[in-house]
Design a protein that fits this description.
Blueprint: H1 5-15, E1 19-23, H2 27-40, E2 44-49, H3 50-55, H4 61-73, E3 78-85, H5 88-94, E4 101-104, H6 111-127, E5 131-136, H7 158-168, E6 172-175, H8 192-201, E7 206-208, H9 216-225, E8 227-232, H10 234-250, H11 257-278
Parallel strand pairs: 1-2, 1-8, 2-3, 3-4, 4-5, 5-6, 6-7, 7-8
Bound molecules: glyceraldehyde-3-phosphate and zinc ion.
Length: 280
């Protein structure tokens, strides 16, 4: 069933756990994520990034409709989230495309500008009934992201975060605590002490980005320390591509895309299943 993101995050807050939010690029991603969620009997967030929308020719509706349809048919609660939005017009259009939440990404901008633009985005989001997440303390690692206004290795400061949340009015905060986007090896080292300090200081749920690079034990520790939404994208790209490569290498005469896409979907589902088994 298609449910609001706010409901899934509230559930994670209630149980002191974390909901997985997994990036959708193709229909097969959505199918793989929902299949894993159904097998585990756990709700999940399907997130479509602005980059993925760009990949689909800048068209928001087709991929959103696919995600919403797969979510609606799922036997577990599934929500649709628009991720890493930098284009303000997308915030206003999200609800109509059946998203119930957006992540507004001004994390690479200077602090004052981040604050002003995020506060404005939060007003637009709330006026459209959307739950909104924003980022403070740039997570980094996105290949075509503008140069960060922050130095590499920067962490979210709890005091600054408290002021940021109250001045922007966002519903959740993505924090920089040691993860980085697009890691293909799971070598990140999280500052769980900082996660705990941020949780104690803030009254909104915390979000971990770049979770593909975080080892299982640290993902669990992060959730136990206060992360309530765990964003994973690259790990599915790794699973999908590895699988496609192996299938194609095994048969040079193969031409039916369903053969390798089915294997890829299966592989992605396995990755999500593993993630769901780790998160409390
Ligand atoms: O918002 C999406 C996540 O932060 C994905 O990060 O691709 O490094 O797992 P990742
Ligand atoms: Zn992210």
């Amino acid at each position: 069933a298609l449910v609001p993101t706010a409901e899934l995050v509230a559930g994670a807050v209630r149980r002191g756990g974390a909901v997985a939010a997994v990036n959708v690029v193709t229909l097969e991603h959505a199918e793989a994520i929902c299949a894993a969620a159904e097998a585990a009997g756990i709700g999940v967030i399907l997130q479509i990034s602005e980059n993925a929308v760009r990949y689909h020719g800048g068209r928001l509706e087709p991929i959103a409709a696919a995600g919403a349809a797969v979510a609606r048919l799922a036997a577990v609660p599934v929500s649709l989230h628009l991720d890493h939005v930098t284009d303000d017009t997308l915030v206003a259009r999200a609800a109509e495309a059946r998203f119930s939440s957006v992540m507004y990404d001004a994390g690479a901008l200077p602090h004052g500008e981040n604050l002003a633009r995020t506060a404005r985005a939060a007003r637009v989001a709330h006026a459209n009934g959307l739950w909104i997440e924003a980022e403070l303390g740039h997570v980094g690692g996105k290949p075509d992201a503008p140069r960060s206004a922050h130095a590499a290795g920067v962490r979210t400061d709890p005091g600054e975060a408290e002021e940021y949340v109250s001045r922007t009015g966002v519903d959740a905060l993505a924090v920089a605590v040691g993860s980085r986007h697009a890691m293909t090896a799971r070598t990140a080292l999280l500052d769980t002490g900082l996660i705990g300090r941020l949780r104690d200081r803030l009254d909104v749920p915390l979000v971990l980005h770049g979770s593909s690079g975080v080892p299982d034990d640290q993902l669990r520790a992060a959730a136990e320390a206060g992360i309530r939404k765990v964003n994973v994208g690259t790990a599915l790209g790794v699973a999908m591509t590895r699988s496609v490569r192996a299938v194609l290498a095994g048969d040079e005469t193969l031409v039916d895309p369903r053969t390798y896409l089915a294997a890829a979907r299966e592989a992605m589902s396995g990755t999500v299943g593993q993630l769901l088994s780790v998160l409390p």
